[in-house]
Structures are given as C-alpha cells and as structure tokens.
Amino acid sequence: MANVEKLSIALSSDMVRSIKDAVDSGDYATTSEVIRDAVRLWRFKRISVDPSDTETIRRLVAEALDSPTVEAEPVFARLEAKYAALSAERAQSRGAKREKAKPVAKRRRRP
To answer: What is the dihedral of CA 95, 96, 102, 103, to 10 degrees?
Structure first.
C-alpha cells in the first residue's frame, strides 16, 4: 500500500471481539485487513442502487447501452490462437529436451 494513513477509532467490545475472532480463525491475517474489507463493503453498499429507484436504473442502463462494446467472437478467436501457439511451443520444447537427453547406459549382467 503506497499511501497509508493511520486512524484511531473507537469500537464496542463486541465488535473488537468479532474482529479478533476473524483474525484468530484465519479468515484475515490482520485486524487492519478486517477493517479494510468492512470499508470496501460499506463503500460498495453506498454506491449500490435501490431497486425501487427506477430513474437511476434507467440512467445507468442508458449509459451502459451508449458505452463502447467489443465483439466477443474475435476476442475468443485471438485467445484460442494465442494459447494453441503457446501449447505447441511447449510441446515442441519438451520434445527437443527429450531428444537432447543422454541415453542411460545399460548395465551388463554378470555371468
């Protein structure tokens, strides 16, 4: 985190216990992670749209429809070609490594 600012907050003992339990159970590594996650959820909740707010929903849908789009098929075709080429390169590389491997000397059996 490049830009970190420390805050001092007051929480109820029940909240502190819940935070410590989350860290102790391994759900989070630190208490700061718990608080950061809670703030993220709070921010998301604040920007969420009330389903009964039809005016905002209409505006957001109009914005989405006016935004630029990309056709999926050409993107998928490019990705398939890219990963097919990578797979072929790896297979060729593995084959070259096998050819370079020195043969194992056979042991002679004693009579």
So the answer is: 30
Spatial contact of 56 and 49, defined as CB atoms under 8 Å apart:
yes
Which stretches in the chain have pLDDT values below 50? none
Q: How confident is the model at residue 102, as a pLDDT? A: 62
- What total number of domains does the chain contain? 2
Share of the chain above pLDDT 90, in %: 46
Helices 31-47 and 13-24 pack at an angle, to 10 degrees, of 110
Q: Containing domain of residue 23, as a range? A: 12-68
First vs last C-alpha separation in the chain? 72
| Contacts of residue 19, Cβ cutoff 8 Å, sequence gap at least 6 | 11, 31, 34, 35
